[in-house]
Amino acid sequence: MNTKPLTVEEVEDACEQFFPIFDTIRNQMPVEATIEDTLKVMETICTLAQKLRAEKEAENLPFGFNKKNGTETD
Known about the structure:
Blueprint (H helix, E strand, L loop, with lengths): L7 H19 L8 H25 L15
Helix pairs in contact: 1-2
């Protein structure tokens, strides 16, 4: 594992990805929810989003006779 300290640019890139997602979830949480609550819900929602992405990608994959083999010639 890389143990070099992170650069400011790397942290800024991570913030640009993290905070829009966090803010989206935080805005839908109850007013009394804590940051810890939001982070727990965020983990669950991101797991669900990954699952939904995989299902959507699987729907678009060819199957059965529709599969195309790169070695086929007409």
